[in-house]
Write the structure tokens for this entry.
Amino acid sequence: MLIEEDTSMKKSLAVIFGAALSLAAGSASAAIDLTTVTAAFTDLGTAQVAVGGLLLVAAVTAVSYKWIKGMLFG
């Protein structure tokens, strides 16, 4: 008799645990707000343009320095 009671207890705990998981999953997926993620991606694009522009300025400066150095000392 003890084995039968233990099995029914495990089954009822499994049902309760499954119900709790399904409720938690439903509320967790409903709580996701994508506006902050979209705003972050917009800011990321702006930052990429800024960094790309700075890299181009650095490259132009380096090449110009090399050309001027070559004209003066070469």
Remarks:
- The chain is about 90% helix and 0% strand.
- The chain has two domains: 1-32, 33-74.
- Residues 41 and 65 are 36 Å apart (CA to CA).
- Residues 33-74 form one domain.
